[in-house]
Amino acid sequence: MEKHNLHKKAPVEHVDYKDITRLGALVNPHARILNRRRTGFTAKQQRDLSRGIKRARFMALMPYIQH
């Protein structure tokens, strides 16, 4: 089974909730946050990612769900 490491393709030092294009690449088509195996992030980076996505959702920059 091949791992898809999205972090190696585009390394993220700081997750910004206003960067919708980068955050959009880290959610699946149903708008769920990808897990650490798919993103390749450390635990701290994954927490920052989820915090950024949740902030973007709260500010109505990203949808909560996709249909």
Task: Quickly list its features.
single chain, 67 residues, mainly alpha, 30s Ribosomal Protein S18, 0% strand
Q: How would you sum up this structure, described in words?
A:
The model has no long low-confidence stretch (mean pLDDT 87). The protein has a single domain, classed as Ribosomal protein S18 (30s Ribosomal Protein S18), CATH 4.10.640.10. It has four helices and no strands. The longest helix is centred in the last third of the chain and has 16 residues, at 43-58. The protein is globular and about 25 Å long. The protein has 67 residues and is mostly helical. Helices cover 43% and strands 0% of the residues.
Q: What is the topology?
A:
Layout: H1 6-9, H2 20-24, H3 36-39, H4 43-58
Give me the CATH architecture, please: Irregular
CATH superfamily, called what?
Ribosomal protein S18
Question: Termini distance?
Answer: 29 Å
Mean pLDDT, to the nearest integer, reads 87
Provide the succession of SSEs: HHHH
Write down the overall geometry. Answer: globular
Q: And the CATH topology?
A: 30s Ribosomal Protein S18
Biggest beta sheet attributes? none
Runs in which pLDDT lies below 50 for 5 or more consecutive residues are: none
DSSP E strands, number: 0
Radius of gyration: 11 Å
How much of the polypeptide forms β-strand, as a percent range? under 5%
Name of the CATH class: Few Secondary Structures
| Domains, number | 1
Number of helices: 4
Assign a percent range to the helix content.
40-55%
Helix/strand-derived category reads mainly alpha
